[in-house]
């Protein structure tokens, strides 16, 4: 199945047809190793996680910030000693 190569930034990209990905058990976002075999052909080898069916779980924005408390501060002043010293004092004075 012929596929064209295209410029993508400073690299070259190739679109892999969905049927080929499905047959290989891959989907977008999976990690593969790119190798050159002994005949000089390019091989895409799925990572161990793809072969075992272990997928990296995607974290949602809500899950990431579920314990965040806006406006909470452990101290009244995050920088208790904010006096300028040394080179900073000379630069800002």
Topology of helices and strands:
Layout: E1 5-8, E2 11-14, H1 18-24, E3 32-36, E4 42-46, H2 48-52, H3 61-64, H4 86-92
Antiparallel strand pairs: 1-2, 3-4
Q: Your description of this structure?
A:
The chain is α+β, with helices and mostly antiparallel strands and 93 residues long. The protein has a domain of 65 residues: Pemi-like Protein 1, Chain: D (Ribbon). The chain contains 4 helices and 4 strands, in the order ββαββααα. A two-stranded antiparallel ribbon has the order 1-2. Strands 3-4 form a two-stranded antiparallel ribbon. Strand 3 and strand 4 form a beta hairpin. The termini are far apart.
What does the main sheet amount to?
A: 2 strands, antiparallel
Rg (C-alpha, Å): 25 Å
Outline type = elongated
Distance between the termini: 69 Å
By DSSP (H or I, 4+ residues per run), the number of helices equals 4
Order of adjacent strands in the largest pleated sheet: 1-2
The CATH architecture of the domain at 5-69 comes to Ribbon
Q: What is the fold named in CATH at topology level of the domain at 5-69?
A: Pemi-like Protein 1, Chain: D
Order of helices and strands: EEHEEHHH
Report the strand count: 4
- Helix proportion range: 10-25%
Strand composition percent: 15-25%
Q: Point out poorly predicted stretches.
A: none
Mean pLDDT: 78
- Text of the CATH class of the domain at 5-69: Mainly Beta
Global structural class: alpha+beta
Could you list some keywords that capture this structure?
93 residues; alpha+beta; Pemi-like Protein 1, Chain: D; two-stranded antiparallel ribbon; 4 helices; elongated
